[in-house]
Amino acid sequence: MSANEEPLTGGNMSEVVRTGDTVRRSAGPWTPTVHAYLRHVRARGVTEVPEPFGFDERQREILSFLPGDVPGWPAPEWLWSEENLRDAGRLLRRLHDASLDLDLPDAVWQLPAREPAEVICHNDAAPYNMVFRAGRLVGLIDVDTAAPGPRLWDVAYTAYRLAPFAQDAFAGVSYDVGHLDPLARLDALVDAYGAAWSRADVLGTMAERLTELAAFSEARADAGGPAELREHAAMYRSDAARVVVLGGRAARPAGGTSI
Predict the structure, then answer these.
(1) Looking at the chain, which runs of residues are DSSP E strands?
(2) pTM, to two decimals
(3) What's the confidence (pLDDT) of residue 14?
(4) What was the pLDDT predicted at 12?
(5) Residues of the chain where predicted confidence (pLDDT) is lower than 70
């Protein structure tokens, strides 16, 4: 790392540094595809994602730096405002819609496509990959795991982290969260996205997503990744079992507008 590089922390496991108004990070075979995707959605008005600038002399990708706050743990109280929840739903809808006419016949994605491949999913649209200014959502970063998939695959994980249903969401906080109703917040997120999925639809997909994420985390740990990945996997499996039960109890629609 050179003297003018500032390490950045966030949701991604690779080394990320800031240099002036740009971010440099390790690239992979999928990076040219992700850059083409970013240029495509930005050209369609979704400027809340980074602008790609190619590669530096060390073959790291270069992206624009999005100024603002990326929440860590303990999460700040302003993160849980309904405005941020609805902003997240609207941003995901715009991001998904902007990818509908993306045509990359030689695309290489880091993650496998998931059927039905309706849109390009971010695949990690969670608070630790969101940028806020003055307590409001203004950006979405760490797009390297984007890949084709169903709209609900993305929305379900955002609901897991922002409604929230994750066990660690309120770790270390000193403020009261008793007024937050995850199921009602799930409804608000889906409504802001503009879909008609039921609570059971979202929670069922969430459980599937968490089960897959647990297996992925365990595989990373087996391959020499951080030991805490096993703890994460255990939490995902526990949360998946819990939301399956919630999904079985939920019957009423979570949103009213059909895609």
Answers:
(1) 6-7, 16-19, 22-25, 52-55, 61-64, 119-121, 130-133, 136-140, 147-149
(2) 0.92
(3) 65
(4) 46
(5) 1-3, 9-14, 250-259
Q: Which of these, 76, 60, 93, lies nearest to 127 by C-alpha position?
A: 76
Question: What is the predicted pLDDT for the residue at 45?
Answer: 98
Q: Which residues touch 198 (CB under 8 Å, ≥6 apart)?
A: 250, 251, 252, 253, 254
Residue 208 structure tokens? 């599937």
Taking Cα atoms as reference points, which of 103, 27, 12 lies closest to residue 63?
27
**Rounded Cα distance, 109 and 29, in Å:** 8
pLDDT for 15 equals: 78
Contact call for residues 39 and 30 (beta carbons, < 8 A):
no
Query: With 0-12 CB in 10 A as exposed, 13-18 as middle and 19+ as buried, what is 7?
Result: exposed
Helix 182-193 with 199-222: angle, nearest 10 deg: 100
- CA distances to 59, 150, 165, 244 from 211, in Å: 34, 17, 14, 11
Strand ordering across the sheet containing 6-7: 6-7, 16-19, 22-25, 61-64, 52-55
CB 97 within 8 A of CB 91: no
